[in-house]
Structure formats: structure tokens, C-alpha cells
User: What shape does this take?
Amino acid sequence: MGEYIARRVASMVPVLLIASVISFGLLYVLPGDPAVAVLGDNAGNQETYQALRHDFGLDQPIYVQYGKWLGRLVHGNLGTSIRTNEPVTKILLRRLPISLYIGFAGLLIGVTIGLTAAVISALRPGSRLDVTASVFALGGIALPSFWEALILVYVFAVLLHWVPPSGYTSPFVNLPLSLKMLALPAIVLGTHSAAVIMRQGRSALLEVLGQDYIATARAKGLRERRVIVGHALKNALIPIVTIIGLQMGQLVSGAAITETVFAIPGVGRAAVDAIANRDYPLLQGSVLMLALAVMIANLITDLTYGYLDPRIRYR
Assistant: This one.
């Protein structure tokens, strides 16, 4: 197991390198100039403009800029934000716990609702509950997250005044207020995950429930709960865990829209702000961190397979 994990961690390095090359190259294809974004109305002064580009290193060839950035990265230095003149590593480490807090809350909602709906639908295929759950799943997949967020804000914040419309408060500062602010973004993130998990879980459970060993377990007089939880659900979890693993990566990397709508200062919001401000170092660091989060989620998923199915061996 340890050797397998070490190999997987080592394989992340070239993937991150490729991601950094692609993100670094795309930045310089996009329109805009960090020096112009910083100077604003003073960008017309060519002397000041050229001096600032020189300070940022933007007057050098792109391969030279990438080489210097990669050299700093090896030493754990992601550079300095062009906009705030603050170390990128410090910014991202401050924002990462916020993204994880929101992301795991959304994942919890998605798994709870998705698995529950999947079990109910699989046990009663063709029933009204099954049709309702299927409609919910299709709606959850089709509904854009930003539109769902706006609807929830209008209903629960503007009309009912149950929760704040946006913002973030640490649970260590004010737990009740933090949970209120967490509710809407977590629901938005969890809706799509629940829909995908429900569809995959229903299909996997229906396939498992048709196996001979399920009929044998019922013939032995085992309680239905034990048959479903102990036999059917456990054997159907591998494809479900695959979907959950993919959702884990998407919740961290795809939360940029949700964080922007709800004004949550997470990593996704940092990437959006970096694009708007042409803050290249912050955007490169954000992309690298999001790519790493997806790969870690995939590694956790692969390790979970061995727990669910003892026949799986890691070599």
C-alpha cells in the first residue's frame, strides 16, 4: 500500500508540470496586461508602464518567465500577487480552508440526498417516488449553478429573510452565523452532486439487486435492511464511490461560480478575481492548487476501492 501511494504521489509531479505549462501558456494568449490593470488611468505613461512591466518580468520571453516561476515553485514559492503584493502561497493557504469547508458541506448534502434517493428509487422502480427522484436528478444536472444560487438567494434571503444573502464567517468566530451563511452555497454545490450520485447509485443498485446472492440472502430469512445495507449497497458502492470521487474534485475546482455569487473568499473566488485583475501569479497558483485537489481526490477514491472490495490489490 505504501509503495502504491508513493508511486501515485510521484506520478502527480508530471501531471502538475503539464498543467502548469498549459495554464502558463494560456495566460499569455488571453487579452489584457497586468501592468495596465495595475496602472489604470496612468497606463498611458510609457515610461511608467515599461518600468512596471520590467518589475513584473513581463518584458522577458515567456520561456524565461516560466523557467523562473518553475524555479521558485521547486522551493515552495508561488510568487507574489501583482494586485496586492502579497505572497501567493499565503493567500491560497488562507483561502483553502474556506473552500474545503464549503466543498465538504456540499459533498455531505450531495451524498446524503443522492444515496437516499438512489436506494428508494432502486427498491421501488417505476413508482411515484422513483419518477420524482428521477425528475429531481435530471433537474439537478440541467439547472445551472449560478441560476439556482440566484433563485435561492431571492427566496430564502430576500423574501423570507432566513439566511444572509452572501458573505462568509468562520465557524470559529460565530458558529450559528457561519452555518446560516453556509446553507445556500452548500445546497447549490450539493444539488448537482446529489443528482449525479442518485442516477449512478440507482443503476448500480438495480443491477446488484438482480443478482442471485441477493435472492439467496432473502431466502435465508435475512431482514430487508441487512440485505440492502450489508449486501446490496456495499457491492454497489464501487461505481458510486467513483462518482463521489469525481464530485469531490469538482466541488473544489468547480466552486468558483458559487463562491463568486455568494462572495465567499475561497480559492475559486481567488482565481476569478485573478482573471479580472490579470494577476498572473495568483491565477497560476490557484490553477495548480485546484489541479492538485482533483488528483488527491482521485487518489482517495482509488484507496477506498480496496476497503470496499478485499479482492483489489495495490501493487
